[in-house]
């Protein structure tokens, strides 16, 4: 099966009140979401991953909420292959005048049949 590719600029936001970290491709709207234990993946009408939300982000990433508010540049790679979602994030936060890089990888098998696709999204 052929793999579809999408590249774009994006936005990131952190809701400290609800401890929710969000990455999204600019100018692409989602039509459905797939929710797992700690995150939600948003899918657009062309079956591309166009957004990722991480619940309890401070705990999941082992960072303080204050650090997540200050995310500087970031890079998101997400793919769907044979009903397995893989999300790779690389982002920087500033803690006590030091830049700290985080690179979490999230993998999850899904029941919903989606075509193979890959997304690369970076800071707008």
Q: Overview of this structure, please?
A:
This protein has helices at residues 57-61, 65-69, and strands spanning 4-15, 20-25, 32-35, 39-43, 49-55, 71-81, 84-95, 98-102, 105-109, 117-123. With 124 residues, the chain is mainly beta. It has one domain (4-123). The longest helix has 5 residues, at 57-61.
Annotation keywords:
124 residues, mainly beta, 10-stranded mixed sheet, 2 helices, 10 strands, 60% strand
List the helices and strands in order. Answer: EEEEEHHEEEEE
Mean pLDDT: 88
End-to-end C-alpha gap: 31 Å
* Strand content bin: over 45%
The number of helical segments is: 2
Helix content: under 10%
Contiguous uncertain segments of 5+ residues:
none
Rg, Å, rounded: 14 Å
Number of self-contained structural domains: 1
Task: Indicate the overall shape.
Answer: globular
Question: How many beta-strand segments?
Answer: 10
Largest sheet: 10 strands, mixed
Class from secondary-structure proportions: mainly beta
């Amino acid at each position: 099966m052929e793999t579809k590719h999408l590249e774009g600029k994006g936005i990131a936001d952190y809701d400290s009140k609800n401890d929710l970290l969000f990455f999204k491709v600019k100018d692409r709207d989602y039509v459905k979401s797939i929710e797992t234990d700690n995150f939600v993946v948003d899918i657009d009408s062309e079956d591309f991953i166009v957004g990722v939300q991480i619940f309890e982000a401070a705990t999941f990433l082992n960072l303080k909420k204050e650090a997540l508010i200050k995310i500087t540049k970031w890079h998101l790679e997400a793919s769907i292959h044979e009903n397995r979602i893989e999300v790779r994030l690389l982002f920087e936060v500033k803690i006590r005048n030091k830049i700290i890089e985080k690179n979490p990888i999230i993998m999850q098998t899904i029941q919903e049949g989606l075509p193979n696709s890959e997304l690369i999204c970076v800071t707008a």
